[in-house]
Write a structure and sequence with these properties.
The strands form four sheets. A five-stranded antiparallel sheet has the order 9-8-5-11-12. It has three domains: about 70 residues, no CATH class; about 180 residues, Inositol polyphosphate kinase (D-amino Acid Aminotransferase, Chain A, domain 1), CATH 3.30.470; about 45 residues, no CATH class. By secondary structure, it is an alpha+beta fold. A hairpin with a 6-residue loop joins strand 11 and strand 12. It starts with 19 loop residues before the first strand and ends with a helix. The chain is globular, with a radius of gyration of 21 Å. It contains eleven helices and 13 strands.
């Protein structure tokens, strides 16, 4: 296996550095889109991929395929700690043209695992982020310590954004040569707000040079086609989640929906990624993925997020339909 380690050229939601890297197989030219990526090893995440593939759960239709582990001595061009391991995953961008648009949406009503809620370690760095987000939210105890727990930060951040309310949050958008400012994403607190962000920043666009009225209608048609493809995939994914034995037996926390479109269309798809915080539900408990979370009940709001995400994309389609009507009438 010949590897070429380079930072991913398309990033969203802070994934980068040496945490996720391109991985070229021996038969590929370095200019090709790589068959695989390698991601810093996490045992819990690796176990989820192994289990999904072992039982051949239908959810694998929407996930990367797992291709084992990679040791640090196989990545000589990357500065990493001795003994660092990676997992090798199929590259979900493989079948898209270069310069694809990528959007990372956290799904579920909380971003923290239950074991994180009981950790008492104080974090000055997260306190600073809390102060920056809302200085009035800081307690006197936190102010004196100059620190807060990770749980406190994550719980507040979930409520400050739309994650707790809607069960999804756009964490990052990257298109060829551009990323969307975090402030724009944080201000999207309703389904309508998020739909407008998608219309403004994510959907395919034709080249700007001298684009005429007919080209704008063509661009709109491409966008509508991509939206329809994504709506179909979201509908299929929700159905598969409802019949999946793996979903029934696990709490989904910290996972994301990865939306991809060709930069100028017509390709579009949706995948489920990030499994490090997925936890098995004890046999003595059962969850429905819609009930309110309370400590110890393992509820994750996964289906709430899926339903609101589908509604968001229906809203995207309505916005585009309204735009088309204005263009055709004016």
């Amino acid at each position: 296996m010949k590897l070429l380690q380079r930072h991913l050229s398309t990033l969203a939601a802070g994934h980068g550095g040496t945490s996720i890297l391109k991985d070229y197989s021996h038969h590929q030219d370095q200019g090709d889109i790589p068959d695989f990526i390698i991601k810093v090893y996490d045992k819990a995440e690796a176990d989820v991929y192994r289990e999904l593939q072992r039982v051949q759960d239908p959810l694998t239709r929407f996930t990367a395929s797992f291709h084992g582990e990679v040791c640090s001595d196989e990545v000589p061009d990357v500065k990493c700690e001795d003994g660092q391991k990676y997992i090798r995953l199929s590259n979900l961008l493989k079948h898209f043209k270069r310069g694809a648009n990528v959007m990372d949406c956290k799904v579920g009503i909380r971003s923290f695992a239950e074991d994180e809620a009981s950790r008492a370690k104080l974090r000055p760095d997260l306190y600073q982020r809390l102060v920056k987000l809302d200085s009035h939210a800081v307690t006197e105890e936190e102010r004196k310590a100059g620190a807060c727990t990770k749980f406190r930060w994550m719980q507040f951040n979930d409520g400050f954004t739309c994650l707790k309310e809607l069960g999804f949050r756009i964490d990052g958008i990257a298109t060829s040569g551009a990323t969307v400012d975090k402030g724009v994403l944080r201000n999207a607190l309703t389904v309508r707000d998020n739909a407008q962000v998608i219309v403004d920043h994510f959907l395919p666009e034709l080249e700007d040079d001298g684009i005429g009225e007919m080209d704008k209608l063509q661009e709109l048609a491409i966008q509508l086609d991509c939206v329809d493809k994504i709506l179909l995939r979201l509908k299929e994914l929700k159905h598969i989640m409802q019949v999946s034995e793996f979903v029934r037996m696990h709490s989904f926390v910290g996972s994301s929906l990865l939306f991809i479109t060709d930069g100028q269309g017509p390709g579009a798809d949706v995948f489920l990624i990030d499994f490090a915080k997925i936890q098995p539900v004890p046999q003595t408990k059962s969850i429905d993925h819609v009930s309110e979370w309370k400590m110890g009940n393992y509820e994750d709001g996964l289906f709430i997020g899926m339903d609101n995400m589908f509604q968001c994309w229906e809203e995207v389609r309505q916005l585009l339909d309204q735009k088309r009507q204005r263009m055709e009438s004016g």
